[in-house]
Amino acid sequence: MINIKNYKVSVFKLVFLASLVVTNATFAKEKYDTSHESLSSYDVPQWYSEGKLGVFMHLSLFSVPAYKNEWYAANMYYTPDNPNMQRYPEYGRSFSDHHIKTYGDRKNFGYKDFIPLFTLDKFDADYYADLIDKSGAAYFAAPAVHHDGFAMWDSKEIEWNAAKMGPKRDVVGELTEAMRKKGIKTGVSTHYGRHWKYYNFREQFDTWDPANEGLYGKRRGDTEPPRPEDAFKWERVMNELIDNYQPDYIFVDGGICDGRAEYNKPYFNDAFRRVMARYYNKSADANKTVALSWKRDALQEGEGVYDNEGQLEGGIKSRPWQAHYTVNGSWGYTGDKPAWPTGTLLRGFIDIVSRNGNLLLNIGPRPDGTLDKGQETALLEIGEWMQVNGEGIRKSKPWVIFGEGKLNSLQAGSKDTWQYDKAAIRYTQSRGELYAWFVNWPESGQVKLPQATQFKATKIELLSAKGDLAFSVEGNDLVVDLPKHKTGKFVWGLKLSKSQ
User: Fold this and answer.
1) CA–CA gap between residue 65 and residue 388 (Å, rounded)
2) Are 115 and 217 in a shared domain?
3) Which of 422, 437, 337 lies closest to 385, judged by CA?
């Protein structure tokens, strides 16, 4: 007799090996393959390295309960016996208690039951395209899929999606079309690499019901490692997004690293390399340049764009990198709240740019699709600042030093950590001119530019005012006399020029 279990395993192995043969054969004919040498040969595109500022969006079912953060889907199913939830038990308990008190039993009202309440009835992709354009951002990433597994496009791979359920809209498609009309490079933000382990499966939850597998996935043990088919599903989802929307930029969240980090299973990392090679090859065939950012240890140094969340890179990096933060301290919508002060955001921005990095800012709309005033105002104020100072930001490169003084020690989640020295200076250079950025208008009326004498400037201007400024030399530093009346706000830029 045939052992059905072994037969199924053998068939799966044959299919898996066959797919590798086909994949390798395909790559043999293409320009890029999955090796480090090949992936690292793809340079960061000019539009990305010169653009400096991007915006992305967190929007899914978690916007409906709007409680604390975007991890509602995982935390609402808290149980004290799940070892994965013991790191912050009180935190998880607060979510489950809130859900039971507000919505009732988690078997009768689970995460899936937020779908009808996720209306997006006021969602306007053209509004967001206009806002991103006014912010001065060069690129945007639409919210494709978060850890919760609810797809925001008309997906054939994920049946539970916003085009078929809830709002019945292809959010990714609408945003992509609207952004491209404005000339904004447009991509997708993806967090699906953690979906395989995101939910807690118990008989007392609706996650246990096989009828809900389209959202929660199949039942698994608390500490069960990822399976190869989990990574294959992720790979198909990513390829579908690439084929459907031809994204200029892809954001891949660090959850894709969990399988290897926690269980020493490389399935997702291997799938990532296949997706990346295919993405590069398809883009080369279309004669377009693309960017892909990654976190943690999903790839190797020199491959794609390395992305930091809540931390800054030290020194000046030879390869462009990225840091991403929220506009108001929350990733998804958790109620209307003030945005971080625009001066705070801009101090972080110039610090990142001075070190050869990009800033990716996050916004989180309401479940009806609208954006609260605080987030809108922050982007508009950044855009107004860019209109005055953008010549020293866009298309700029780092100088010989990034500057002096501490600008911040930002960690995601608290604006109190944006600490800075009032005398801090940051430098950028562009088109043969040096730009010096200072973050506090001094009472003395003078700004000291450390080590700026080596630039040999013959003329200094303030970007927010007209006229040349007087300056003197103190050792290796330049001391610049500012206008008597303060002009501009948030962060100020000095333009240093040489005689032609």
Assistant:
1) 40
2) yes
3) 437
- CATH number of 465's domain: 2.60.40.1180
Q: What is the CATH number of the domain that holds 214?
A: 3.20.20.80
Residue 101: CB partners within 8 Å, gap ≥ 6? none
Chunked mean pLDDT (size 10), the chain, 500 residues: 43 48 50 98 98 98 98 97 92 96 98 98 98 98 98 98 98 98 98 98 98 97 97 98 98 97 97 98 97 97 91 83 93 95 92 96 98 98 98 98 82 56 96 97 97 98 97 97 96 93
Final residue of a structural domain among 276, 309, 342: 309
Strand pairing class (433-438; 446-449): unpaired
Kindly state whether residue 320 falls inside one of the protein's structural domains.
no
Residues 291 and 409 in one domain: no
Q: What is the DSSP string of 321-370?
A: EEEEEESSS-SS--S--PPPPHHHHHHHHHHHHHTTEEEEEEE---TTS-
6-18 confidence digits (pLDDT tens): 444 444 444 445 4
* In a shared domain, residues 448 and 302: no
Order of strands across the sheet that contains 477-481: 446-449, 477-481, 471-474
Residue 230: strand pairing partners: none
CA 100/CA 180 separation, integer angstroms: 43
Classified as helix, coil or strand, 236 is helix
Give the integer Cα–Cα distance in Å for 170 and 189.
15
What CA–CA distance (Å, rounded) separates 311 from 317?
Answer: 14
Contact by Cβ (8 Å): 230, 199: no
Exposed / middle / buried, residue 472 (Cβ in 10 Å: 0-12, 13-18, 19+): exposed
Q: Show which of 253, 284, 309 is a domain's final residue.
A: 309
Q: How many helices and strands in the chain, by DSSP H and E?
A: 13, 16
Do 295 and 436 fall into the same domain? no
Residue 150 lies in a domain: yes
The answer to whether 191 touches 250, Cβ cutoff 8 Å, is no
What the block records as the tokens of 482 is 């500012």
Q: Which domain holds residue 222?
A: 44-309
Whether 209 is in a domain gets the answer: yes
Residue 306, helix vs strand vs coil: strand
pLDDT digits (tens, 9 = 90+) for 170-201: 999 999 999 999 999 999 999 999 999 999 99
The 8-class DSSP code of residue 42 comes to S
The total domain count for the chain is 2
**Is 165 part of a structural domain of the chain?**
yes
